[in-house]
Amino acid sequence: MMSSFGKIPGCGLGFIRSWIRFKLMRWKSSRRLLFAVYSALAVPPGAGAEPNARPNIVFILADDLGWADVAFHGGNAPTPHLDQLAREGLELTQHYVAPVCSPTRTGLMTGRCWSRFGVTNPQNERALPWGTVTTLVSWPGHGKPGKVQTPVHITDWLPTFAAVSGFSFDQDLKWDGTNLLPVLTAHTPMPDRPLYSVAPGWRSRTLRYGQWKLIVFGEGSRRKVELYDLQADPAEAHNLAASNSGPLARLQAMLDLAAARDRDAIAKD
Q1: Residue ranges of the domains in the chain?
Q2: Chain-centre distance of CA 269, in angstroms?
Q3: What pTM was estimated for this model as a whole?
Q4: Cα–Cα separations (whole angstroms), residue 179 to 19, 159, 229
Q5: From first to last of its 269 residues, what are the pLDDT tens digits of the chain?
Q6: What are phi and psi of 137, to 5 degrees?
Q7: Residue 61: is it exposed, middle or buried by C-beta count within 10 angstroms (0-12/13-18/19+)?
């Protein structure tokens, strides 16, 4: 298992006070879970009494960690520390990412869907235009333990970290993500919103809205659509596209609107 870590300096050495674990729903258009994302938030001693203190933030992203690989999901590898995190922390059970590494990292670093940068596959070439900066300077306090069913997206983290740090940008970064603080701290349900993703090689596009999920394969005469009611059918076993024209039309319009912004930030230099 390979991991990448991002640590943002704060007010000195701290200790782990809270964590958030994210596990990912599978994509219908790809293999099952390839990623799990873990976040550990380190706080300087006494930071609770200093509202303006900046903590250390550690974000751990593990590649190729399957849903059933960890012991708390019945896996055959001992993962005692992760099991403890699962017992004590907050689990976001519908956290969407790409099924491969480079797109997921692009979404995390920019707050935008990876397809905006033309990134859908693993790649070594520079994916982001010069001037794209990730700023992780604070943390959202004590996350409320438990489980949250609210659908969230990897692109939500940059807006969230910016919000809790009070950081503002001098330009419009065109974020697709949104601030998750109400979900993390109080389990406040979020209004339904489109969650857009593109599969590796552009082989499909997906849009989640409320209980509905639309997957579109191909273009023109080769276009194929699948529509699922995730509330009644979380395993995505029954394609309802032929019998639910209303939700299908609404989600297709949302998907087309989201897709129109793809490749608007490709690195050209």
Answers
A1: 3-191
A2: 28
A3: 0.71
A4: 17, 5, 26
A5: 333 333 322 322 222 223 233 333 333 333 223 233 334 343 333 444 455 555 556 777 777 777 778 888 888 888 898 788 778 877 777 888 888 889 988 999 899 999 999 999 988 888 777 656 432 223 445 677 787 888 989 899 889 888 877 778 888 889 999 999 898 888 899 999 999 999 999 999 999 999 999 999 998 888 999 999 999 998 899 999 999 999 999 999 999 999 999 999 988 76
A6: -125, 0
A7: buried
